[in-house]
Amino acid sequence: MHRLLERQIRRFLGEPATLPPELAAFIAAVDEAYNSADADRLLIERSLDLMSKELTDTNAGLRNELAERQRADMALQKKQEEQRLLIGKLEAAHNQLLQSEKMASIGQLAAGVAHEINNPIGYVYSNLGTLEKYVQDTFGMIDLYEQAEGAIADPEVRSRLQEAKKKLDIAFLKTDLRALMDESKDGITRVKTIVQNLKDFSHADTSDEWNFADLRSGLDSTLSIVNNEIKYKADVVKQYGEIPEIECLASQLNQVFMNLLVNAAHAIKERGTITIRTGREGDEVWVDIADTGDGIAPEHMQKIFDPFFTTKPIGKGTGLGLSLSYGIVEKHHGRIEVQSEVGKGTTFRVWLPMKQS
User: Fold this and answer.
1) pTM
2) Which of 47, 104, 268, 355 is most buried, judged by most C-beta within 10 A?
3) Which helix (H) or strand (E) holds 240?
4) pLDDT band at 101 (very low <50, low <70, confident <90, very high)
């Protein structure tokens, strides 16, 4: 008999053996129902255990699958980020190569211009010197004729001579011819200087060879090249300190200076000042290019050397100037530092080693 049923019979009806036959038959039926319920309960419990185990195993599999998928997603994101960085580096390298090719073309053009222009300029300059001597000799002869004028006995001849002097205005011709000669020589000298500055800027004779060069000369030739970009916006103040020649790719550093000078001019809305300083500290030299422009917003400071980043309007800038400059300075094992205050201006300092290791 089922223990629960037996306990209740003993409690309320007494010993099961003493029960009447008809009640004993009923109790037997109830006992069978109790045992059947126990069997069903055990079956249900086993079924629930099996279902719970299957559900636990399924959940564990799903968790593993989810973790694997998350790892795959993270690996994919990492790969995509690596590809994005690689593409950025490739674009920067490509643009730097294009810029280097452009600078090489400028160098070749400058060399060609110098070759084609220098010879005729030399002729003109030499001829001007000879012409100036001839003019001085002619004026000397005229002076002698003027001194001998009083010794002419024939009044008619003397009268014609005085009339010719008055008509030609010899005194004015003497003054004006000297001024014309000086202006012509100055003009030719300026043309020679411009051609030389082009050669110095591009260093067409040295190309991509490492040589020792004076950064101050590079700054001066670069200023000459970008003068038209600066002269309407700013006064240039040079405060050059003593620095030695350094081992460098001079034409590429001139490109850095050009980018910084043009950016400084663009940063100035009204008339301002661009100050250029040089100095030496230990085994390094530095070049400062400071402007009194608008300054750089703090949120942009971390992005100014990124390729294609620009705050200029569309069509006004490519966003490559500072990125390429950063790459050139890094190639020289140097660095660029920036200090800026909105509304007051910006200073870029380029540090460069004196010798390449």
Assistant:
1) 0.51
2) 268
3) strand 234-240
4) low
